[in-house]
Specification:
Helices cover about 45% and strands about 5% of the residues. With about 240 residues, the protein is mainly alpha-helical. It is globular.
């Protein structure tokens, strides 16, 4: 069963019509509706970094509606209703529809490298450096992004909805939770990046204030060159923080 297009949507774009002709607000509203119809697994198989980016690409007319394997045929039908065009078969270049999978870590092989934790878009893998990691089953979206990140191949994707795929294996509440967890993940990673930059900048500034005692160099010209390099690095860090 497909969903009806929301009443707040602008007139749907005709297939092949340039989306640039629509106003920015209309495209944004369309992107909102399309994003709400995506499963929010954040798997990137559509070719975009997350579900929202794919929704914006569809709304602007730069991506077609058949690039989401987790949503499957039902997902494409939902997107087709919103866009106002006929559904298409899933593009095999982006994967195939199948049962929802769960990431399972072989604890005997896990080396605690944390690379899978960094790859997970919904923060459902817990653990610490040099300690065994584990997946919180209820929060895993089956995105598979942790699998190529693991250097010892200790992560397997196990089907947990045999005979059910797409939206038959997923639900709106699960999609909403995944969207919220991904939003938190982005906030957390940005905060961590900012705090790390601030920490490194403070360390560099402290050394710069008394560079002569923090370097083995003795030649004044060499120390001056090093000071210039550190000052330039600090300037770049401040520029990144302000951007």
């Amino acid at each position: 069963m497909t969903t009806a297009a929301p009443k707040t949507l602008p007139e749907p774009c005709k297939h092949g019509e340039p989306a640039a002709s629509a106003s920015t607000s209309a495209v944004s509203l369309l992107a909102d509706a399309l994003d709400a119809a995506l499963p929010q697994t954040q798997c990137t198989r559509c070719g975009y970094p997350d579900c929202r980016s794919y929704a914006e690409a569809m709304a602007s007319g730069t991506a077609d509606i058949n690039r989401c394997p987790p949503g499957g045929a039902e997902g494409i039908a939902r997107l087709a209703v919103i866009i106002g065009r006929a559904a298409l078969p899933l593009d095999p270049a982006h994967g195939s529809e199948g049962p929802r999978a769960l990431a399972v870590i072989d604890e005997a092989w896990c080396i605690g490298c944390t690379l899978c934790i960094k790859a997970c878009p919904v923060d459902c893998i817990v653990g610490a450096s040099k300690l065994m990691h584990t997946v919180i089953d209820a929060q895993c979206t089956g995105c598979q992004l942790c699998v190529p990140a693991c250097p010892v191949d200790c992560i397997a994707m196990l089907p947990v909805t045999p005979g059910r795929s797409g939206w038959a294996a997923w639900s709106a509440p699960l999609a909403d939770e995944a969207r919220e967890r991904y939003a938190f993940h982005r906030l957390r990673t940005e905060r961590d990046r900012r705090e790390n930059d601030e920490r490194l900048a403070a360390k560099a500034a402290a050394k710069l204030a008394d560079l002569e005692s923090h370097t083995r160099l003795t030649d004044p010209e060499a120390i001056a060159r090093k000071r210039a390099v550190v000052e330039a690095a600090l300037a770049r860090a401040r520029q990144r923080a302000g951007s």
